[in-house]
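#data-curation
PF: Archiving a pair of folding outputs for the training set. Convention for this channel: one message per protein, sequence first, structure tokens after, nothing in between. First:
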Amino acid sequence: MKCSGLGLLVLVFVLVLLASCSTTRNANVCCANDTECAKLGLPPGSANEYGCSQGFVCQDFYCVAETAPDAAVDAPIDTPSGRCNPNAPFGVPMPMPNVNTQFEDLSVALTYDQLKAYIGHFTATGHVIVTSRRASVESDFPVPTSDPTLAAVTIGFDYKLYIYPTSDDLVVYYRQDITMFAASRLHPDDPFGSGTAVLVDGMQLQPARAMISADSLTLYWSGPSAPLRAATYGSANVFVNGRVATTFDLTDFAISADELTLYYSNYPNPDIFRTIRLSRNVPFDVGIPLANVNTIEADIPLYISPDDCFLYLRAPSVTSNQRNDFWIARRGY
């Protein structure tokens, strides 16, 4: 059956989470008492239904292992290995082959298998979102092309950029004008539906940029010179428990797959910084400039590969000081 009353934000928030809708609850999201459940838009007594399974406890709206919560929450996600020494420094960035244009290159984000890139350009006709697919992680991405699965997302002439996929490539998040949207599909070969505005604690999200974590449970977003923020998954476009994720201001960022390393810059500061935290339950503290990567101009982190071997960034073109290109910094062996 279909949910009703979706025009009202409060009902959207409640109905998406309740079992009376055709959607099902996310088993990893929980509330432990009436106060927490109220933040999810749930009535008193819902903690029994929105509790965690045996051996888990509810912590910050997540179900985490009761015996070792930090180990459960902060254990690194399985990632490809062998492409670098994770303790080695990044080398000097190189231009991204085949992908840079004569116009402004704005954003790039990869699927978790690193075989598909979502790319945003600003061209003579406006903002363009394209994709590129490669056969293996050792290959360069070929020249990007328009993607028919994004037809419902890219239709029209709105300001659309900073597209970011979930690990399974079934949801993409992107900014349209000043509002963040999410577009979904059921299978990786299906077309995406038209986007729906992302809600955080019942309010439309209007960030500079946003990205979804590798486990799809946490949305991170930034604003112009503001602390990084995070919220917990409720559904593809509904998030709760908005909270501060840094003790300092930033504008652009990329977060590692285990969510313990943050690469960031704060325009007009020209450098990319790196900072590490020991737990996802605490904010990031101020970091230090990333060695070898920074130029004298504005360098902007866009995406870090799941194995932490490749940092994709935006920096001035070698052929024009009037535009930016995509660059890749790789760790050594």
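PF: Second:
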Amino acid sequence: MHSATEKSEEAPNLRSRLYALPKVDLHRHLEGSLRLQTLAEIAQEHGIDLPSYDIKVLRPFVTAADEEPDFHRFLEKFRFLRRFYPTQEAVERIAYEAVADAAEDNVRYLELRFNPIAQARGQGFSLDEVTTWVCGAVDKAQREIDIRVNLIVQIGRDESLDTAWQVAEVAVAHRHRGVVGLDLAGDEVRYPARGFAEVFQWARREGLHITVHAGEAAGARSVQEAIELLGAQRIGHGIRTVEDSSVVRLVHEREVTLEVCPTSNLQTGVVRRLGQHPLIDLLALGLRATVNTDDPSVSDTTLTDEYEVAMLAMGLTLDHIKRAIVTAAEGSFQPPEEKEQMVEWFREALESENGSLSGLTSREVNDSVNSRSDRSPDC
């Protein structure tokens, strides 16, 4: 049995070790990654009316950390956050900082998803403009920071079919500029995915990968619908897959990767307690489950936090975490050769005692994975 002193020393040591692990985040929203200080500065500069410019006062408007869990209240945070894209410079700053913050947490590969409607609507920008600005800022960030980034364009479930087509077409038009996937997100209870099937099937034929938010607020059948009708290769959240054995088999047979976000699942009320979270069950079933942040600012979290929560509150081991990182690398939306190189790099890194890299330096590996002949630096 450990003494109280030993226990107090274990948590900091565990956190340091988890921070040191090279990480993969497949499910992180740009719109949920704004720094509070940046939000306040943009508001002041552009005269955005706020209750206060003090970030302590603004925090409850952005974060869900101290609120009663509720799915729709969680989504409401994004209505507030959509106000902070008044200029091209603001869009680019927010995108750059989202990448920088991920890198600060030792995330080495990030797939950052964004909804161009959030940046364009109300500001008079075109979808093409804001997508180009995000591409450019992210490209600049990954050239200056030790991280590899790809982008996923998101469609809101509450959008019209015409708007969905417009967003999908913009995503396809930027597929050689860092956009690798298309996502469907939002209220899966009120807006079923089936109405967007043709849009997503077309995007898949045009070369984009597909991920769909499902199996969170709605049950396992929403996961089935996303896979069978929209062609989802990954599922955002997907934790309610465990409710239906036939859907478990489908996810397993199709080798669909689940993008699990534990803290977010608690804050939306999808799980009542972290100790009841089904992530460990998903892993026990042999499903390809990963650990991600979802919305670092809204959830007031980092990927290190998510790993720590998964171990201390949900019963995962360090080996589970390492396996989830490799699984995330395997499920990344990259060309096969680049993916193979990155998976091998993560395997080698995670085999060492403290998760440090072996063989190549991180910059050398990053440069190797980054070398893509069809990526335009002027996106």
